[in-house]
Design a protein that fits this description.
- This protein has 491 residues and is α+β, with helices and mostly antiparallel strands.
- The protein folds into 3 domains: 3-47 and 239-313 and 425-490, FAD/NAD(P)-binding domain, CATH 3.50.50.60; 105-216, Orthogonal Bundle (protoporphyrinogen ix oxidase, domain 3); 315-422, Alpha-Beta Complex (Polyamine Oxidase, Chain A, domain 2).
- The protein contains 16 helices and 21 strands.
- Strands 1, 2, 12, 13, 14, 15 and 21 form a 7-stranded mixed β-sheet that branches. A 7-stranded mixed β-sheet has the order 8-7-17-18-19-16-20.
- Strand 1, helix 1 (14-24) and strand 2 (36-39) form a beta-alpha-beta unit.
- The chain is globular.
- The two termini are 41 Å apart.
């Protein structure tokens, strides 16, 4: 007899963990009635969140931070009692490698939008021709309508090609490892479209945002909430501390690692999941919280049209190389938290982060600098296929050229993420709307994770919570129970 559960969550990344937590923790102060199984094919949960220790130093194999402007991670931290473990970013300020030197990003940039114009005017990152072209944004009329366009088309239309090549593209590579020529501006950077349509252009928006910044410095009346600002944060024990707490909160036996789902079939009262090795599990509801290619494979027998829409989300491979050096190996002190490299520079790395400066964590030796380099993405996908020795050599070559460090590293670690980054190409939101309509034909089944409505950790957690609420609401209605009150994560 196959084991029976109410909800099967396929995929143990942060989206799947959030979905399982929402199902098992119960709401409105009552125990959860649901039997839940979380099935993860790899040996550990967490997905691309991977915190490891090397010779006493904390390393992040995947993301190293989250943004606080979106509530998903902060609310999960409160839910798990991890608020005291939150770690604000230490050193800030990023640089762009351009024309043979590092240029500081002009202060006051909000993504591409300058909230302070003087730093842009005086920056040596842009030529005077480029600065004048960016200033023309003030008189270029906005583009109206709901039609999507590429990020490249948007930036070139509003700010010019120099702003694209020296600013937008490296920022995009650092976040999405993507190509602005194919990326959907509405799906990836909706704020740009909102600013254009609200203020007529990005430069006009800059003046409004500047006035808002000035008002923020004025004393606020008692009880008046302050503006929401964007910060980067992590945890004292790395992002893996969050993943471990999420997994530890689930009841024993809920999480099953090393369990690959071979096929999902629909039955009269739910779904049958055929597992690797021949076992099976039946579930009344299913959440697929896997990468797009895997979700499409499992959806194919259930709804080929929905599977095609999921499969339309491209995935690209990346890798990170973390190297440790003595501080005196650098001819000049490191400044800021790292740098980005535009594709037009023709370098092998997309950028580097100074981990030991970005995150003020204790280290076995304080005079050691940890540098994490990023490679791969849309621009150089085959570089990820090189062996560890060649990747370390490539990173050392780039750091020698950009930072002047010639000494061998104390140690180096390589982390690969094959097909690990999802790309939101032009028309992505329209395809996701069609996907959601198609999923309406599959009762008690939902999708969660990075392929759909957001790639960051907060968005993935929120998608897991929403998927669980959707499926559990259907189960509640079918069981004749009243719908539960909103959980603390909703408030």
């Amino acid at each position: 007899m196959a084991q029976q559960v109410d909800l099967a969550v396929v995929g143990g990344g942060v989206a799947g963990l959030a979905a399982a937590l929402e199902a098992v923790q119960g709401q409105a102060g009552r125990p959860s009635p649901w039997r839940v199984a979380l099935l993860e094919a790899s040996p550990q949960v967490g997905g691309k969140v991977l915190t490891v220790w090397e010779q006493g130093y904390l390393l992040e194999g995947g993301p190293d931070s989250f943004v606080t402007s979106k509530p998903g991670v902060l609310e999960m931290a409160r839910r798990l009692g991890l608020e005291a473990e939150l770690l604000p970013q230490g050193s800030s300020g990023s640089f762009i490698w351009s024309r043979g030197r590092l240029h500081p990003l002009p202060p006051g940039l909000l993504n591409l939008v300058p909230t302070r114009l003087l730093p842009v005017v005086t920056s040596r990152l842009f030529s005077w021709r480029g600065k004048l072209r960016m200033a023309l944004d003030a008189v270029i009329p906005p583009r109206w309508g709901e039609a999507d366009e590429s990020l490249e088309a948007f930036v070139v239309r509003r700010l010019g090609r120099e702003a694209l090549e020296r600013l937008a593209e490296p920022l995009v590579a650092g976040i999405h490892a993507g190509d602005p020529a194919t990326m959907s501006v509405r799906a990836s950077f909706p704020r740009f479209v909102e600013l254009e349509q609200a203020y007529g252009g990005l430069v006009r928006a800059a003046f409004v945002l500047r006035r808002q910044n000035r008002r923020r410095r004025r004393p606020r009346p008692e009880g008046e909430p302050g503006p929401r600002r964007t910060f980067f944060m992590s945890f004292r024990g790395g992002l893996g501390q969050l993943v471990q707490a999420m997994a530890d909160t689930l009841p024993p036996g809920t999480v099953r690692v090393g369990t690959r789902v071979e096929r999902v079939d629909r039955e009269a009262d739910g779904y049958r999941l055929l597992l690797a090795g021949g076992d099976s599990l039946t579930a009344r509801g299913v959440i697929l919280a896997t990468p797009a290619a895997e979700a499409a494979r499992l959806l194919r027998p259930l709804d080929p049209a929905a599977a095609d829409l999921v499969a339309s989300v491209p995935q690209v491979s990346t890798a990170t190389i973390t190297l440790a050096f003595r501080r005196d190996a650098f001819p000049r002190p490191l400044q800021g938290s790292g740098f980005l490299v535009p594709a037009v520079e023709g370098r092998k790395i997309m950028g580097a982060t100074y981990l030991s400066r970005k995150w003020p964590r204790p280290q076995p030796e304080e005079d050691v600098e940890l540098i994490r380099c990023f490679v791969g993405g849309v621009q150089q996908p085959r570089l990820v296929e090189a062996d560890d020795e060649d990747l370390v050599a490539a990173a050392r070559e780039e750091l020698r050229a950009m930072l002047g460090v010639t000494a061998p590293p104390l140690f180096a670690r390589v982390f690969r993420w094959p097909q690990g980054m999802h790309q939101y190409t032009v028309g992505h939101l329209e395809r996701m709307d069609r996907l959601e309509a198609a999923l309406g034909r599959l009762p008690r089944l939902a999708l969660a994770g990075a392929p759909y409505r957001g790639v960051g950790l907060p968005a993935c957690i929120e998608s897991g919570l929403q998927a669980a609420r959707q499926v559990l609401a259907e189960l509640d209605r079918e069981a004749g129970r009243p719908l539960p009150s909103p959980s603390t994560a909703d408030r």
